[in-house]
Amino acid sequence: MKKKIYLAAGCFWGAEHYLKQIEGITFTQVGFANGNTENPTYEQVYTDLTGYAEAVLVEYDSYIIPLRAIIRLYFKAIDPTSLNRQGADFGTRYRTGIYYADKSDLPIIQEVMALEAKKYNSPLQVEVAPLKNFYPADDYHQDYLDKNPTGYCHLPIELFAYAKNYKPISVKIRESLFANQDLGYRDFHSKLMPAIEKERIIGVRTPQLRKLAKEYAKDAEIDDFLSSLPHQYYDENNLHGFVIAEMKDYECSIAEIDRILPYIDNWATCDLIRPKSFNKDHSRLIKDIRRWMKSRNTYTIRFGIEMLMTHFLDDDFRPEYLEWVANITNDEYYVKMMVAWYFATALAKQYEVTLPIIEQKRLAPWTHNKTIQKAIESYRITNEQKEYLKGMKIRDCK
Asked: How far is 136 from 27, CA to CA, in rounded Å?
C-alpha cells in the first residue's frame, strides 16, 4: 500500500539523502511544509518569516516498511530535544516536525514519540501536526547530495550507510518464508483454499512456520510486522497467527487478535491461532468470546466459536454456551461449518446436555446434518450413540 508522510529534520539535503536509502521508501522530494504564504521560494523561507520548515515528502510502501519503522529511523537522524536547530543550522526553518496527511497515522506517530521520549531527560521538540501545505523546492535542491557528493551535510556519512543496510522486519520475514518455500506443498495447499489466489501462497509447511514464528517473536521490531496489515501473502498471515500464539500476556494477545481478525480471509489462518495466554484467564476470555461471536465478520464469529469449543467444553462448560452457538443466524459456509464442528465436539464431551438441541432440531437443516455427520465420524462417540444420531438426520436436506 502506497502512503505518504512529511518529515522535517533540519537541512533537507541530508535528510532526503538519508531517507531515500531506506528500503521500502519509494520516492522522496524536498520542499517547504506548514507555512503561511503561497508558493514560497527558498530565499523567502530562509528569512524565517514565512513559517515554513524544510521538509521531505516521503512516499513508502507499507507492505515493506511500516510508518512506525520510518519514524524510528527518522529519530536516528535528528536531535529531538533541540529547538529550531539541527547541527550547525539554526532558525525556525530547521525545526524538526512530523506532518501527516492521513489522520489514522497520528496514533502511530504518538506511540513512537512516547517511546522515544523515554530516552531523553529533556522534553522532545518535535512538532507533530496535520499537513497544512507543502511546496516542492526547485530542482537545484532535489537529490542535492547525489548531484554534489562532497556538498554540505549536517548528518554523519555513517548514517547513510546504516540506512542503506537497514532491512525492515517484513522484508526479513518474507525472505525467510521464500527460503523455506515448498512448491509441491503450495500447489497442494492451494487446492484446499480455492478462494485464495495461488500467487498469494508461498508454500511453507506448518512446522517451519512455527519455528520461524518463535524466532521472530523475540525480534525487537516484531510489532512493525504485526502492524503491517493487510499482509500480502497467506503464509505471512499464518506466521502472524503463530507469533500471537507465543504471547504470554493476555491483554497483548487480545489486542493483536482484534487487530488481525478483520484481515483474516480463510478458515486455515483463523483456525491456527491458539494463544497460550488464553489457558490462564478464562474469566476474561469468555467475555471476549461473546464479543467475537456477536460480530458480523465471518472469521471473527468463527474464531469466537472455536475458542468456546477449545476452552469451554470441559471443566468450565456451562449449558448456556450451547445456546449462544445455537442462536447464531449466519448463512456463511465457514460459520455454519464451525457451528457443526462445535456441536459435534459438544456431543463428544457433553453428550447428555447437548443431545436435546439435536433432538429438537434447533439447528438449521444443513448444519444439523453436518453436526451428525461429524459426530458419527468421531471416535469419542459410542456406536450406540452413533446409531441414535443417524436416526435424527433430516431427509431431503441440501
From this structure: 13
The pLDDT confidence band at residue 375, using thresholds 50, 70 and 90, is: very high
Into how many domains does the chain fold?
Answer: 3
Q: Decide the pairing of beta strands 96-100 and 127-130.
A: parallel
Q: Which of 165, 192, 216 is the last residue of a domain?
A: 165
At 129, give phi and psi (nearest 5°): -160, 155
- Strand partners for 31: 55, 136
Whether 303 and 238 map to the same domain: the answer is no
| CA gap 293, 392 in Å, rounded | 27
Burial class (CB in 10 A: 0-12, 13-18, 19+), 220: exposed
**Which pTM value belongs to this model?**
0.85
Instruction: Spell out the residues 6+ positions from residue 326 whose beta carbon is closer than 8 angstroms to its own.
Output: 343, 357, 362, 363
The residue type found at 227 is: S
Quick one: which of 293, 294, 372, 357 has its CA closest to 326? Answer: 357
Domain assignment present for residue 177? The answer is: yes
Q: Quick one: residue 396, left, alpha or beta (phi over 0 = left, psi -120 to 50 = alpha)?
A: left
383 burial class (0-12, 13-18, 19+ CB within 10 angstroms)?
Answer: exposed
In 3-state terms, what secondary structure has residue 314? coil
Is residue 318 within 8 Å of 351, Cβ to Cβ? no
As given in the structure block, the three cell numbers for residue 348 are 463428544
| Distance separating alpha carbons of residues 323 and 51, to the nearest angstrom | 64
Same domain, 153 and 175: no
Q: Which sequence positions are flagged as catalytic? A: 11
pLDDT tens for 212-248 read 999 999 999 999 999 888 999 999 999 999 999 999 9
Q: How many Å separate Cα 284 from the centre of its chain? A: 23
The C-alpha cell that represents 187 in the structure block: 500447489
